[in-house]
Fold this sequence. Notes:
heterodimer, A: 13 strands, 20% strand, B: alpha+beta, five-stranded antiparallel β-sheet
Amino acid sequence: MESLKDKVAIVGMGCTPFGEFWDKDIVDLIVEAADEAFADANVTAKDMQAAWVGYTVQDNAMTGIILSSALQLQFIPVTRVENACGTGAETIRGAALGLASHTYDLVLALGFEKMKDAGFGGIGQAWPGKWHPVYGAAPEVGGAVGRYALAATKYFSTYGLSPEDGKRMLAKVSVKSHYNGSRNPKAMLRNRITVEQVMNAPIIAWPLGLFDCCGICDGASAAIMCRTEDAKRYRPKGDYITVKASAIACGPGWGKERVNYGYTVWEETEAAAKQAYAMAGITNPRKELSLAEVHDCFSIAEVIACESMGLCEKGHARDDIESGAWEQTGEIPVNVSGGLKAFGHPAGASGGREVYEFYKQFQGKADDKTRQLKDLKMGLSHNQGGHPGNFVAGITIVGEPPSR
Amino acid sequence: MVGIVSYGAYVPIYRLNREAIGAMWNKGVGKGERAIANADEDSITMGVEAVIDCLHGMDRSQVDGLYFATDSPPYIEKQSASIIRAAADLREDILTFDVAHSLRGAGSAMRVAADAVAAGSAKKVLVAASERRIPPPNSDFEVQFGDGAAAFLLGDTDVAAVLEGSYHMSSEFLDVWRKPQDTYVQTTEERFIRDEAWMKMIPQAVAGLMKKLNITPKDITKAAYYAPDARTHSSIAGQMKLDPKTQVQNPLLDNVGNTGTALAPMILVAALEDAKPGDRILFATYGDGADAFLFKVTEQIEKIRDRRGIKRHVASKMMLPNYGKYVEIRELMEWESPRRGARRSSLPVLWRERKMIYALYGQKCRKCGNIQYPRQRICIFCQAKDDFDPIRLSDKTGKVFTFSMDQRAQEIVLPKVFTVVNLDGGGRFYSVMTDRDTTKISVGMPVEMTFRIQMGPSENLPLEGSGLYNYFWRVRPVRC
Lengths: 404, 480
């Protein structure tokens, strides 16, 4: 088995602002993200030899044609990928594999989601169960919040936190996300909040309240990718990044039916991290990673993801949250972009958006200079789709190109 | 010797204090409580409860028939008994039918069941009665009605109460009626009904029975019979020359309410709970005439005491805080149209997986011994293929492993409590918790299974796009 490490580079990226765009449709989002990426890499749509497009469920989109028709790509291969909220990572992985196999030389990976045409809050079509919808994960028998809240309850009880203490720990995660998001011009939620506000917010699914939940919204992100040896054609060295690892772990599911599933570890994320660290040659992620963009659809998701990826010892998230280890100035900045929580979560676009954060940080182009990190080496982007016990997780690690 | 082999009953956990009804309409309506079915209960789910209570500790495969009496079937066309049979995990090769359209249905079904056993076409037959009628707001019915169910197993071996005889009367008397399109029970002047029906029909049938069996009122130990309210019930006793203090079983009208078709059967269960060998119990149902039965209790009665029956169910209750909560769970107001489109359950799936969905069968891996639900081809623990024994999970108890309380889910009674349960004896079950006090839910709490409406054709349960009732098993805190 060969590692993908440094074989593929990202030479251009684009990302729309994330938000509720009543005046934009899918085509607008795709064109906006792709245009930024094309201009960034100094290429055009005509230069694309293949494309990968990721989105989850859309009334107004099917297949890869949504991408080719929006951008008027002329008869090139377009692969549609879907891994629920983990779709973004799969989009980049597909493109990377296409390049590493030398089948194509220059490709587009684009993820989008138009979630606010639905007419209701939250996510639409959820995860079908075995006897959908009688028994499963459809909103009828449990939406995303209710599912992640099961993990929050169990995390509190496993580690001996009272609901009050547990909620306070989670509140601090959301306060951090909003603080970071408030300084990110493309973020959806740019208001700063306090722990008390979080604690007193309406309950959505006990123990999670309004501010424990990310913003469901519209957006798109895009990456122009080539093999690393060709990257210098598009931009100077030091201005592009390479893929260090691209891993997906599709769980066997049935966690909520399996007595040995504990709800305090994302097993799929743990497995994807193991694959990714091996590929990237990382032994101490907390030290070696310059930042981590973590799938924090809910505050508890960030906590358990960080523990599952070894960024924090299991059961010790509270110590890190108290010490500020995950803050911008901390040991391992987590969601310095604002995360899904504050930047917003258009399902298919989030994975690419997380990579975009490292890309811009690495180039020294953080939109708001107060958010700019220094001396970046490697960044991790984590995505997961499904619900506790039934995830597909994706991890993309990108970083500084090799010195050779 | 045909008679009652076992009995069971069900009273929903919620009660509405009559003072709350009086407070709503600003008038005195008397004291006591009505038992109110939860929003996810109907006559079928309550029937399942009573049947399972009746079959407690018994081999369910010995049941040869299920006759189900109700005036409140969820479907006008589509059998209810078949759903109860499936949920109670009775055999498929048995006779099931519904006896509807009359308050007297349970008595009629009992006679037919006894005849089937006597004729030898069946060894053991279940007769169940269940009722969840909707009274018109601000009416006498609203004060009187209650919800509940009862079930009896009839047979000719291990008989706990021998059927000594019965007497039947059919009368074309119009007192209550409901057309298919009517939500509420219709009626006429109460004084007319009292004089010509309530005070006459049961007494006439009982007089006929006594003459037939050559007994007198003194021979009756306890009488269990229908009446719409406590005062009328007491007057009927006088009419039958029974001593209301010693010979009349408390009719549950004060603390449960008039449960229609199920009322006399529920009173009979209460009578059997206290009966001693040798007691003679009179049982009479009313509606479009009357049916009267005489039972003689045997020593066998001592062996079927461990049912929840009436006493334990009545003692286990939660009060609805006010009339508004009653309006909510009975869906007496029109809800906002759902914003999300309704999902359609696949009827081929419901058919294909009927054992798993209705009787809640999981499977136990023969290789690693782990119990799992739902059905798999490959073991989710050891990956062995197609090597399982079926195992019924509906009679398992368990402990809450984790839970969440969703305030915005599609459900009438919010929050919707999603619950992951580790079953005692192995296996894990994911479901919704019902009949719960949200301030008392905790990890580790003991729970049990209950058959409920999971999705329905009305608006605020999860809306079933196929326009049908979709039943499934939920969990509840161990009831009593």
